[in-house]
Design a protein that fits this description.
By secondary structure, this protein is an alpha/beta fold. It is globular, with a radius of gyration of 28 Å. It binds adenosine-5'-diphosphate (ADP) and zinc ion (2 copies). One zinc ion binds next to loops.
């Protein structure tokens, strides 16, 4: 039992990395935990202050006689901070980090924010005049002006940045200012983006009545909620099935009981459209954060939540740590998104962390996706999560698209060397004639990093693992999972064809080729280059939504978020690219991308068409995406995961060692391999936890990018059916490496994959 506790006094003022040590008095031993609120004497006058326990130990950091003693456990309700510190503790244990790193992740850093002047566009017209202006703009086809006045039907002022998102330029505003219809005002610091809204819409006047499928899900979850059941639910609904409407109803339900809600959405879906939908419904009770906010701005938003000024927080991963006092519901939209896992320590997954936080404050968790992650669906299948499936689009007359799969090997054999199949070319021509829009999607993950045969479609794979070999600059092909390597072959090992080439063409090239084939078409390109400017992303999307272009060419970025009603054709140029990325999840990611790309086509009455071009039409990921058959995809994918012991069939942990000195990396990895290996054998073979579950070690190998920022990196993978065994191995290995002095020389990082 711990003798001493590390305590931080008054979270908002003290630095969290400067805890004070206190002695735990005899009667309190065993009752003190991380996050626990305690009363302690503080400062020269020994005034009694409230503190939070952030750590426990058996050793005093200096003379134990001089340490002050905890007075008692603080009476009164458990604060949000207390819960968040518990979350931090859990994250540290679960994902491996220092308590300090974990605390910095969950507690917002207080920082002075410069009193920013924020500019607003204010409307000076009365409601009737606004309606008239909107109508006139529609008639004259002034798209930007139409959007502006539509916004003014609901709010008196909009933040200047929002206008930019709406693609309303200064040139649009100028004549309106001159005619005295609007004015631009600077108001001091008023950060909530929803603050300009007039009033939330009452339910009666809301435009949408839930359909029977939506209503069934809502009633079911609400009934369970009201009878005190708290659990995790999966809403598996195709794109456009109305999940967002369901989320809003559920939020409304818990809000009526005085509870707060957090909605996590991938950053890329945080579009103006989404913001408007929620503001319309919840007015200024809702707030948004994004990763572009400064620490101070985020702190401000979180303060509003703590004071109860807002009840709904929407944002990416980090919104999970909003300090609500009565959190009742956490919703995670697009739960399969990779962005929900943190890439910095602690490497937490928002889905698991949400469930842990929900458990502390008695909240329910709702996960939503058209293509659930294999992990989540497995839990739903086993009844661990509540499960709802919606197969129909919510909007009346919105039909599912017709899908073609085109075998590009056949195109080549029949003399078509273009990157556009004949089927896609015909459809593009047809759409252009009808003045409908098309999206061409280039899946660029792993671009040019592997070799494939243009004749038989074969991608060159490792002999020992089911992953493609990665093409290195020195013309070697290397397996990033086991280290196997060969020289780059000249002929295809399967069919001996010489048409062996690095895979994939860039978006720029695609754009040029579209222009060549259809000189009159207006083409927009959206990729890393064209969006790196601030606001570039939104500008391109709005321009396309305003039908300022016929064809949009882009990477993953165009797949999510936006709703383009006039798009009736989606062409997926090379479905295979992501299929052979060196990652066990590449099949799942490909299926998700294909399914979601296909979901972009035909979102109103006009039937959409989808062309999937591929070199492996018989691959289960392509086949099942084309038929939109999730269950079949899942079944095949699980077979593969089981066969090769990948999650969720098995837990998988990576250990990465890096150092600027190649020899140090080598030595530290050898030590890690020895320590982890023998400890793994000891605890699984001995009278240990679980006799029959050996730990499989794979590697060590050089990391995919061996030298990165002048650091040499090696990776070791460990697999075991029992997650806890891997955690034990991690803790032991970490400690041993520290004892043997390696931690000081090399960086040692553990990550659950
Ligand atoms: P998802 O989040 O599943 O992609 P959304 O909630 O965004 O789906 O709904 C897709 C479209 O259908 C939106 O334009 C939305 O306004 C509309 N919609 C949703 N539910 C209904 C409904 N019950 N009746 C009419 N339209 C609806
Ligand atoms: Zn071949
Ligand atoms: Zn291999």
């Amino acid at each position: 039992m711990a003798e001493f506790a590390h305590i931080i006094i008054d979270i908002s003022h003290e630095k969290v990395d400067r805890p004070f040590q206190y002695r735990i008095p005899e009667p309190l031993k065993g009752q003190i935990y991380a996050g626990c609120q305690v009363d302690v004497p503080f400062g020269k006058g020994n005034q009694i202050r409230k503190g939070y326990v952030v750590g426990l130990s058996n050793q005093a950091s200096y003379d134990p006689e001089k340490l002050k003693e905890i007075v008692g456990i603080h009476a009164g309700s458990i604060s949000a901070e207390s819960q968040l510190i518990q979350v931090a503790w859990w994250m540290k244990e679960r994902y491996g980090s220092t308590m300090n790193q974990a605390l910095k992740t969950v507690l917002p850093v207080k920082q002075k924010v410069k009193q920013k002047e924020k500019r607003w566009i204010c409307c000076l017209l009365d409601p009737e005049e606004r309606k008239a202006q909107a109508a006139e703009a529609i008639k004259k086809k002034y798209k930007a002006r139409e959007r502006l006045f539509e916004a003014f039907l609901e709010m008196d002022r909009i933040p200047y940045e929002m206008a930019q998102q709406l693609n309303i330029t200064a040139a649009v505003l100028k004549p309106l200012i001159e005619r005295g219809m609007i004015q631009v005002e600077a108001l001091a610091d008023y950060r909530n983006p929803a603050a300009g809204f007039l009033k939330p819409q009452s339910k009666a006047s809301s435009l949408v009545t839930l359909n029977t499928e939506q209503q069934a899900v809502v009633s079911d979850i609400c009934t369970e909620y009201d009878s005190g059941i708290r659990k995790t639910y999966l809403i598996h609904g195709i794109t456009g099935s109305g999940k967002t409407e369901i989320y809003m109803e559920l939020i409304e339900h818990v809000r009526n009981q005085g509870k707060e809600a957090i909605l996590l959405i991938p950053e890329i879906s945080l579009t103006y459209q989404t913001v408007m939908r929620f503001c319309r419904r919840f007015g200024n009770k809702v707030s948004f954060i994004n990763s572009k906010l400064s620490a101070g701005e985020r702190y401000d938003q979180f303060e509003q939540a703590k004071k109860g000024e807002i009840q709904i927080m929407i944002g990416p991963r980090s919104a999970l740590f909003t300090p609500f006092q009565n959190l009742g519901l956490i919703i995670i939209d697009e739960e399969h998104e990779a962005a929900y896992k943190s890439e910095i320590t602690p490497r937490y997954h928002a889905r698991e962390t949400a469930q842990y936080r929900a458990g502390l404050c008695s909240a329910s968790v709702v996960l939503g996706s058209a293509t659930p992650s294999v992990e989540t669906y497995t839990k739903a299948l086993h009844g661990i999560y509540g499960y709802y499936k919606i197969n129909r689009r919510a909007k009346k007359n919105s039909m599912l698209p017709k899908v073609w799969v085109v075998d590009m090997r056949k195109e080549l054999r029949e003399g078509n060397r273009s990157i556009f199949s004949r089927c896609l070319q015909d459809l593009m021509k047809e759409k252009l004639e009808k003045q409908e829009q098309a999206i061409l999607f280039l899946n660029r993950r792993g671009y040019s990093s592997f070799l494939s045969c243009r004749n038989c479609g074969e991608a060159i794979k490792c002999h020992h693992c089911d992953v493609t070999l990665t093409l290195h600059q020195d013309d070697r092909l290397v397996c990033h999972y086991c280290g196997y390597q060969i020289r780059r072959p000249r002929l295809c090992p399967v069919c001996s064809s010489p048409y062996l080439a690095p895979f994939g063409a860039g978006t720029q090239k695609v754009e040029a080729m579209v222009q060549e084939a259809f000189p009159l078409a207006r083409v927009l390109r959206m990729d890393y280059d064209t969006t790196s400017k601030k606001g570039g992303h939104q500008a391109i999307l709005s321009a396309f939504a305003n039908h300022e272009a016929d064809i949009l060419v882009g990477t993953q970025m165009i797949v999510k978020g936006h709703d383009f009603p006039a798009v009736t054709l989606v062409g997926i140029l090379a479905a295979d690219v992501s299929l052979y990325a060196p990652d066990y999840r590449c099949g799942e990611r490909t299926f998700q991308l294909l399914t979601q790309a296909a979901g972009r086509a035909g979102r109103d009455e006009r039937r959409g068409h989808v062309v999937i071009q591929t070199y492996s039409p018989e691959h289960y990921c392509v086949e099942t995406a084309a038929t939109q058959n999730y269950e079949q995809f899942y079944q095949k994918e699980m077979e593969y995961r089981k066969l090769l012991s990948y999650p969720p069939a098995c837990a998988l942990m990576a250990l990465m060692v890096s150092s600027s000195n190649e020899g140090v990396t080598q030595n530290a990895m050898e030590a890690a391999f020895r320590i982890a290996g023998s400890f793994g054998r000891r605890i699984t073979q001995g009278a240990g936890i679980c006799g029959s579950e050996p730990v499989k070690m794979i590697g060590p190998v050089n990391a995919a990018i061996y030298k990165l920022n002048d650091m040499y990196r090696k990776i070791l993978y460990m697999k075991c059916e029992n997650y806890d065994i891997l955690i034990k191995i991690r803790n032991h290995t970490e400690e041993e490496l520290k004892q043997q002095g390696f931690s000081g020389q090399a960086s040692i990082l553990f990550d659950f994959m």
